[in-house]
Write a structure and sequence with these properties.
The structure is a homodimer of 201-residue chains.
Chain A: H1 2-22, H2 29-36, H3 42-46, H4 50-75, H5 80-97, H6 107-111, H7 114-117, H8 119-142, H9 147-171, H10 175-200
Helix pairs in contact in A: 1-2, 1-4, 4-5, 4-8, 5-9, 5-10, 8-9, 9-10
Chain lengths: 201, 201
């Protein structure tokens, strides 16, 4: 069982990496098997739902990873603005260090129509993005931001990071990360100060 | 000649629509021919460079369309903040009215690896995104924003819109547009006021 789970986990990680690099349709089971060094029989043993199941599990793994990164960043963030900075800087460094090769592990399911063609894939895309946005909002509230403004900031961080991943790859430049970071941090500072001054009143 | 150009233009528009709906790899020449009602012989007559050429021309058409939309919005915008609002609202309405079906016509070339596999596609992705960002920056400067801050705002609007297109489709909600709009407009207002007060000094 340990062995089997290990093979499955390696395949999910390999699928996640390939989907981040080249999207959903260009990721074949044969590439996933090669990258994970898994035996061919593993495909329908571990993923009876086929490629859609593998992609859904890869998207879930990506979301869990992002939530863990957000939690770790929040441990070191005394403010909402600092959490945004830490998260954006990690994303920026990963992008530069991957040679502008790595995008999001969920976005391709949306942009390649898989989320529209399959209700299950659509539901996974919705849920995984929601998990990440909710986690940001949760920490922003803990860090003193108003609940409604925490939602706005969380939605905006998610959209900003998704977009920066695309334009930064296209332009082969970290500038989009730096620019959207500046804009998001200014907003985070403003809503934090507003919340702090309300508390003092 | 008029007839031929018309067929080519229809194919480019059809390819743009399909790429926006389902990405690059899932868009087959046969689908483009069907949607544009073009004869089969048109493919290699108009696009001797194959699908990559068709996708590059579709990305260019998408960028030109966005530049025209930005110019029209700028005609009605007395400030950088208002230009951001008008552009974001058009994108939001198009997204909602398309039933969350339409994404960006350039992003799939980046996220599906086509930009990495082909130097020509990579160059098209870079140039088309640059054209849109440069146009925003141009108008922000005309509207009184500092040159450096106009670049930051333009980069951030581009990233914000790209990301909102993805998360809004995934969540089937306009909330990401509204949230990133709030954040971008606040920044645009702040840099506009700074520029205005510097001029008064």
């Amino acid at each position: 069982m340990g062995q089997r789970s290990d093979t499955k986990e390696k395949m999910v990680q390999a699928a996640k990496q390939l989907i981040r690099e080249r999207g959903y349709n260009a990721t074949a089971f044969s590439d996933v098997l090669k990258l994970s060094a898994a035996p061919r029989g593993s495909v329908y043993f571990h993923f009876p739902g086929g490629k859609s199941q593998l992609a859904r599990e890869a998207a879930e793994a990506h979301a869990h990873e992002q939530v863990a990164i957000i939690d770790r960043a929040a441990d070191h963030a005394p403010s909402a603005a600092r959490l945004v900075e830490l998260y954006m800087d990690l994303g920026r460094d990963l992008m530069v260090n991957s040679g502008y090769g790595w995008g999001c592990g969920i976005a391709p399911l949306v942009t390649e129509g898989a989320s529209q063609d399959s209700a299950e894939v659509g539901e996974t895309s919705r849920r995984t993005f929601s998990e990440i946005v909710d986690r940001f909002a949760f920490h922003f509230v803990l860090l003193g931001v108003d609940r409604a403004e925490a939602r706005v900031l969380a939605d905006a961080v998610m959209a900003g990071v998704e977009g920066a991943m695309i334009t930064s790859r296209a332009l082969r430049s970290p500038a989009p990360y730096d620019s959207i970071r500046t804009v998001l941090v200014r907003y985070a500072d403003a809503v934090s100060q507003k919340a702090a001054s309300r508390k003092r009143d």
